[in-house]
Model the fold of this input.
Amino acid sequence: MNPMINVDGLITPMADAVIPVMDRGFLYGDSVYEVFRTYKGVPVFMDDHFVRLENSAALISMTISQSREELIQEIRRTVKASGANSKEDIYVRYQITRGIGPVDLYPDPGLETRYVIIVSTLPSRKPEYYSRGMDMAVPSVRRNPENALDPNIKGGNYLNNILAITQARQLGADDCIILNREGFVTEAANSNVWFVINGQLTTPATGNLKGLTKKHIHRALKAAGISSQETDIHVNELYDATECFVTSATRDVMPCVSLRLEGGEVLQFPEGGGEITRQVQAVFLAYLDTYAAAHATDALV
Ligand SMILES: Cc1ncc(COP(=O)(O)O)c(C=O)c1O
Done:
């Protein structure tokens, strides 16, 4: 496939896509976005992604000028232009910016929003991230408090997460596990994080984006009779963790093999994921198969 970008209806190869510099998405990160991938040509959890996009927009008092139907239609046109076929899973990112306005922080409610749709191959990740697992580190950077910047605004400014993963990489890790100011675990740079603690599979209840992969993993596990929960997890509880993995639309279930705490101490987890991690991977894959079969008529290619 050839990666393609659609800016307000104009579809071009990536290198030719342009937006006006005065767009508030560029000037201020004043935008919201979603990323989904296809599985067997079917957009995974697309309805949920639209609900989350609309919620992000509501949280920043943005009225999206384009209807959901128009955006889906434009996503389809962009996928078609890319020449993708149902044999390869593709990446779809769609972003709504507040559009162009005067240089003024206050967003005039009358502004016309702009959309940008990116259709590409799935991000290439080192195979070792699955066969061995990622090395994680806790950076000193803390997650924005929810009453400063709600993590459920999936917006065009990721500096908090960028600072956190940059520090983790400087420490030699692959990704970060970000704490809040009280020392509770929130999430990884752009995925949700899960642990097995005292035999119980758990993921942080608050301070993170309500990941759609996490939501559907809970659902898949429940149907399979495996218990999972959401609790507040203090960093000190991680000494009792025996497994760790992250989840997101583009990673599915990715094991973590180590975690460097802030003081330099390193916790180890099983290579390639422990027993429960591998069980979650299998259950989620089967769930995706069932989902794709049930939503075959939504296929984009
Ligand atoms: C900060 C953050 N947390 C969690 C996630 C995982 O969400 P999802 O499973 O919907 O991809 C993402 C991915 O978009 C993210 O950016």
